[in-house]
UniProtKB/TrEMBL annotation:
Entry keyword set: Membrane, Transmembrane, Transmembrane helix
Gene3D superfamilies in alphabetical order: Rhomboid-like (1.20.1540.10)
Entry protein name: Peptidase S54 rhomboid domain-containing protein
Subcellular location field: Membrane
GO cellular component: membrane
Membrane topology: Multi-pass membrane protein
């Protein structure tokens, strides 16, 4: 992405390094906060109505809302988020990762205001990180609950299927959140997806054409005109006859049966 490269050269030094570490710290702090005062959990949610009333901190605090109230599952989820985020940052660089995360945040905020719905966590935002990781490292194997080994690409396909189901059956808020989740993903990977799709399509048709040609090459004919070389494979309606005046066995199509030079014993065809 040329625009990102240009921005990186100009303002890349302002990028937040180890961004995911700060997000994890915020999640842990929010977990402790909610553990001691669970009734205040609503104060962190992204609520468009209350934001319009002046509670602008909600534009940020929804990112810190912990993904689980279970300490064990929270530890697993935060470890996974950190691993994914840190890997993406190492792959892209801090600036590009910051932009990807920021686009996800802005997309979710926009979806909340468009659908006028309350978003209580960064679930869809974190899912966009997961999809980016699966796109870059499809064969990475994840041990779910420390037991089941699953490749990232299969988990990604499962999530895509859930997206499709929610787009069909979900509410307007669900649809808006999903579209927002995919916004940063397609901005970053859309060009590659289109290019790969075109290449795969071209490769498929080339393969089919090659297979068709090979079938034609390997098909055996039973009749062939000595003059023009046509066979029954060229035209199923062609008729062939042997010439009794030619030396040896020489077959001709009806166009040349009576219009050819007869082959003598010392002639070569």
């Amino acid at each position: 992405m040329k625009l990102l490269d240009q921005l990186n050269r100009k303002i890349g030094r302002y990028a937040i390094r180890n961004l995911m570490l700060y997000i994890i710290v915020l999640n842990v702090a929010a977990f402790i906060f909610l553990y001691t005062a669970p009734e205040l959990g609503g104060k962190l949610a992204l609520n468009p109505y209350l934001i319009r009333q002046g509670e602008i901190w909600r534009l940020i605090t929804f990112v810190a809302y912990p993904p689980s109230s279970s300490p064990l599952f929270l530890a697993f989820a935060l470890y996974l988020y950190y691993m994914i985020g840190n890997t993406l940052e190492n792959q892209w660089g801090s600036f590009k990762f910051n932009v990807y995360y920021l686009l996800g945040v802005l997309g979710i905020i926009a979806s909340a205001f468009i659908s006028n719905s309350v978003i209580g966590s960064a679930f869809y935002l974190n899912l966009s990180l997961f999809l980016a990781f699966a796109r870059l490292y499809p064969d990475f194997t994840l041990r779910i609950f420390f037991i089941l080994l699953v490749k990232m690409k299969w988990l990604a396909w499962f999530n895509w299927a859930l997206f499709g189901l929610q787009l069909i059956q979900g509410s307007a808020a669900d649809r808006a959140a999903i579209i927002a989740t995919l916004l940063n993903y397609f901005i970053f990977f859309g060009k590659d997806i289109v290019t790969n799709t075109k290449s795969a399509s071209t490769g498929y048709y080339r393969k089919k054409a090659y297979q068709s040609n090979m079938k034609s090459v390997h098909k055996e004919y039973h009749h062939k005109c000595t003059v023009c070389g046509r066979t029954e494979l060229d035209d199923k309606d062609l008729e062939f006859r042997y010439c009794s005046k030619c030396h040896g066995y020489h077959e001709y199509c009806m166009d040349h049966l009576h219009d050819h030079v007869h082959i003598k014993g010392d002639d070569q065809v």
